[in-house]
Fold each of these.
Amino acid sequence: MSGEAPRTSLYAVKVTIGQEKAVVEMLADRAATEGIPITAILSAAELKGYIIIESPTPHHVDELIRGMRHVRGRVQGVVDYAEVDRYLQARPAVEGLAVGTIVEIIAGPFKGMQAKVMNVDKVKEEVTIEILEASYTLPITVHADYVRPIKGVSP
Amino acid sequence: MSEKACRNCRLITRDRVCPNCRSSDLSEDFTGLLVVLDPENSELAKRAGIKKKGRYALRVR
């Protein structure tokens, strides 16, 4: 960590859900063509309905978003850099998953079902799970992004 | 050609080879978007380990 405080701040902007990436592209184009001092713009998959704009002052953010389609306005105040760190640093998808962990499947045909982790492949970032609601054991292998741990290792 | 993200430096490109690091290890499966306009003054770019202007993915599978 450098001792020097950043000269820029982060501002959250509310946008239409599903249009985050399109808005980021349009704003980046406008900042470049109109010479507005914006240093970076971020859209994270986990952050639905919001984008983060990095700029030296909030006035430049207001100038940038004025009249832009799908923009609902700037959120008052600034966003802490520590809060966006988790979107920037690629953490392994299998983090928090171990054999015996109870998980919820968050995508695909088994979405919403609970399952128990039977095997973790750290290299491929895949987990083999057994669906708890199934009447017979059916091991399936899915990407670790498609499951969310809900309970630690069960006995 | 559809957009792909470099697994090495996360730059998003339509080329077959990453124009930033010359890697050919590209993936269509990526999420998030970080547009860096001024890498020298951007704390976000610094924290993400990005030194060049451009469009980057946050997560590449």
Amino acid sequence: MSSTTHGTTPYYFVPGPSAYPVMSAIGLLFVIFGAAQWINGHQWGAWSLLLGMVWWLGTLFAWFRRAIGESESGQYGHKVDLSYRWSMSWFIFSEVMFFGAFFTALWWARTHALPNLGSLDNALLWPDFKAVWPTMAPGATGSPADIVEPFQTVGPFWLPTINTALLLSSGVTLTIAHHALRADHRAQAIRFMWLTVLLGATFLGVQGYEYYHLYTELNLKLSSGAYGSTFFMLTGFHGLHVFIGMLMLLFITLRLRSGHFTPERHFGFEGAAWYWHFVDVVWLGLYFLVYWL
Amino acid sequence: VNDLAGGPAVRQLNLPVGVTKIAEEQYFLNNAMMILCTVIFIAVFAVMFYSIWKHRKSVGHKAANFHESVVVEVIWTIVPFIIVILMALPATKVLVAQKDTTNADLTIKTTGYQWKWGYDYIKGEGEGLAFISTLDSTHRALSDAGAKGEVPDDYLLKVDNPMVVPVDTKVRIITTANDVIHAFAVPQLGIKQDAIPGFVRDTWFRAEKVGDYYGQCQELCGKEHAYMPIMVKVVSKADYTAWVDTKRKEAAAKQDDPNKVWTLPDIMARGEKVYAANCAACHQANGKGAGPIKPLDGSAVVLDADHNKQIHVILNGQNNGAMPAWKQLSDTDIAAVATYTKNSWSNKTGQLVQPAEVLAQRGK
Amino acid sequence: MSAVIDPHGHAHGPGGHAHDDHHHHAPTGWRRWVFATNHKDIGTLYLLFSFTMLMVGGVLALLIRAELFQPGLQVVNPELFNQFTTMHGLIMVFGAIMPAFVGFANWMIPLQIGASDMAFARMNNFSFWLLIPAALMLVGSFFMPGGAPAAGWTLYAPLTLQMGPSMDAGIFAMHIMGASSIMGSINIIVTILNMRAPGMTLMKMPMFCWTWLITAYLLIAVMPVLAGAITMTLTDRHFGTSFFSPAGGGDPVMYQHIFWFFGHPEVYIMILPAFGIISQIVPAFARKRLFGYASMVYATSSIAILSFIVWAHHMFTTGMPVTGQLFFMYATMLIAVPTAVKIFNWIATMWQGSMTFETPMLFAVGFIFVFTMGGFTGLILAVAPIDIQLQDTYYVVAHFHYVLVAGSLYAMFAGYYYWAPKWTGVMYDETRGKIHFWWSLISFNVTFFPMHFLGLAGMPRRYADYPMQFADFNAVASVGAFAFGLAQVYFFFFIVLPNMMGKGEKAAQKPWEAAEGLEWEVPSPAPFHTFETPPKLDATATKVIG
Ligand code: HEA
Ligand code: HEA
Ligand code: CUA
Ligand SMILES: [Cu+2]
């Protein structure tokens, strides 16, 4: 069950005093302080933000490296592994709720705010407003106050559909990599991991291109009324999560290359994979609710 | 101080009985709930204090050993369940009634501004009347001075132009707001309805007694939230007709010709009044502003030779409505107040803004 | 990162659950606290932090009460008054009450379930230290141009769009606090699910752990939703989005829905751990096991589940369709049922017991009595037609201070008196504890009871000045508030401080005759490391047998 010597697994690993947490918190202080100043027109805020970010990411890097070291030296027993599994699941649950808030905003804007704004009673305030989603569709009269510049909306073809294909296939390649790892075919696992990362990166590239296209050609912007707000916040936060997930996968790939993980024990791999699948599912939601409907 | 008829009473302990059916129902419901809750409370805590008294160690009571009973648990789940259902039934009836705004005889749109109420009579007798209602400015000054000395009974509740409605008439109130959320509330009439910018909501009342009824804005709306009272004057139907008549005449007399050309002293005098009534709350009488509120004294926009810049800000507001839009003011008033700010305090531009300039900027 | 101190983890020796591992001495000096990975130290940090915030929030409350002592403006201008109200609410909720319960969780959950520490000790410390930047930003916002946020703790749009730069500081601070809460909750859930000593089944677990398990679940579910809402506020303020702006097709009421979807579960987040503490204390002093343990667990879960479908009872006056009002009224009233079960179970626990009334028990009984009054006013508010009269009046203020101060805060006092002997190794002074209790109980009611009358008479909340007719009750409330505040100063200087300095009678391992649970199986004060190897438990999972 437990033992006194180092190198064998303790019943439950409890780390000793650590400076990482407090250092991270200091980094974040600089981040939020800088951000609050920056968006209020103080340019120097950006420097504080940058410094804080670098500091924080550096600390996280060291922190995670330490944790990986502990894991690889076999100090994390079965119990710790289970803790990680629970924690990752709950973390993903919290992310689901976060996206839930934005999906709710989309739903509310379409099925409550918009019809209400265009209702008979509301004609007292916005007599010319015709409620059609998106606010710039044919027959619509733009936003109630007509403050939104005309824009065109995006459908699912072709970029979003290509992206759907990319993400779905990245899910497949990831699963192949996982099977390979379990079968101890490390080289194959690494190859498919690279492929997965590449697919993720391509997704981001395509999305970046799409944004560019929207901003320059369709005049669809963050400021394009409720449609633009929900569109960009949802796809933007999703993109951010793809980016984070991709980083996770990248580090997992690098760890695979340096011989980490065993066919039996590789929670780091699985955690990243869960996250990736979560990001995938969110995308499917976006694909249908934002682009199709 | 004395009780204020139609407003709060000194050390009032309960809801007002009210002068509408709905208010009475609310009063009744609240009393019923109070009594029921008090009875349950006493019953429950009688048991607890009995136990505290009898089952103390110091009187030698020995602890029993039971700690479970499904039967008891089921009973005290079902009984409260039944009680809340009994409570919900009459509430449902009142709720449905108070939401029924159909078949109103008179419809008034009330708009919340920071920090005043605008009333537009949009349907029924008096249709077309529109005016703004603000707190009596002496009361505001009294508040700043710490409300010392003789304080009137209607302190903070007196307005310049009350909403006037006929008795025994179903009045539908449509609420909306110009800047942030306000709430139109008059306890004696049993109504409270948030006024939400960009949306309309409605409520109704039918006052059964002639009198003055007071309320206050009940949704935090910025710094003068405590200073936007509501006064509803319920008058007999004949008086109402008379009131509508005089109000119509007044309005006609007040109609300014937007093409009239003003002289500086005349328009300054007018501007000073408009400023005191609308702008001074934020920008202060000395034009220095306060906190996030920009000073007008020395402001570049105010001093600018291009009048349209300032007119634009006054008409449309600025900073997400932190500076609200004032398009509800007349062209003459806006021209007057612009002229006033251009020639007050250390601002000595000598510029004169004419109503026609404002008219030209409207809708731009 | 060479300065990072991070010695290897502990590989613990067998045997002695209650002995300090002789290989590892407790770290000393400031590093012990700043680099802490020990759940007890982190718990202490949390408790000290939250008490500090209680003082800050309390001083703001007293400033509010000073202004409201008489009609007219005397102390502050209306703008500053709104800042005080807003910051009082935010600081009390996010700075005082929530972290304090996390502090209790840190200290007690590993002890109660026989775990060596929290599941993620470093992340635990991170959760704590995140609160410091957040608090700095929040309190510091008073010194930003335009002053602190003044839109109420609910931060309703579009008033938030008019706020100065401090609003952004506040939003970021709340993001950080949210992250802290989420990580803290994950830690607590994982600890409870994964680190219970063998034999400590879920249904044998102390109630405090159960209530925290459910609270943590609520936190993880709703904190991200709050983050979403305030992020939308942020982008509406600075990046041109129109979530809450009707001019662009958005809706201010949408903010309220999202906020209260967080906000209502939030109020249960602030009360469920209190229920847990009370459920530990009442049996201990009634010398009788908790009545209806299983039904307590089910009731707590029901409250949590119901809490997700009642949020719009804060929005009865926004003009919902009548069906919406009816639904939310019924659902809200339903919550009285599981809460009733809890109250009845406590009383049944006392029934036929053999009670003594040391300070923890006094506060527990005080809690049950006064919290129930707050619960009843809640029920009255839930009746939509009545809420039309009472929404945004002092009746609501009275309601939530009855449940938050006489509820959450009292439970924390009760918990302090109950567990401080374990934490500090010395007993508090019983007489002083009783003084603290009676003084608090009386002054609390003097402060907040008159607010019911004010609300019924129609005095709106968040008002810097009010009509003359409300003067007398306001004066009474203000006097009460200062007395109540003084009681808490007394508590700190005459009870907490001596305890912390180790003054007082030495506490026994189990100072309470009939207390049950593993925390009483370790010495007082609890040694730095406890249960480094899982203890062997008896059949009831309340005693260590090997
Ligand atoms: C700890 C925090 C806490 C708790 C536990 C509660 C508990 C409850 N609250 Fe409260 N509430 C708040 C904190 C809390 N509240 C806050 C902070 C606000 C204001 C927010 C703001 O606007 O700033 C608020 C506002 C608020 C409102 C909105 C008021 C308004 O703004 O108009 C409503 C309306 O329904 C409400 C209802 C309830 C109900 C029904 C309960 C129930 O859970 C109570 C259940 C308990 C009992 C009923 C008593 C015990 C039961 C018995 C003894 C059994 C017998 C009883 C019967 C059979 C009836 N609360
Ligand atoms: C969560 C917990 C919590 C707690 C513990 C409290 C505690 C107190 N609250 Fe508050 N309160 C809220 C949560 C809480 N409150 C919320 C959420 C709001 C709504 C905000 C909003 O509208 O947005 C609110 C609003 C609120 C208002 C309404 C303001 C308004 O509408 O304008 C008032 C008014 O009296 C008030 C008073 C008090 C008082 C007197 C205490 C007392 O219990 C405080 C006691 C503590 C101390 C006083 C500190 C200790 C003393 C010292 C440090 C030394 C100085 C002492 C002396 C010299 C005597 N609170
Ligand atoms: Cu308008 Cu408060
Ligand atoms: Cu609620």
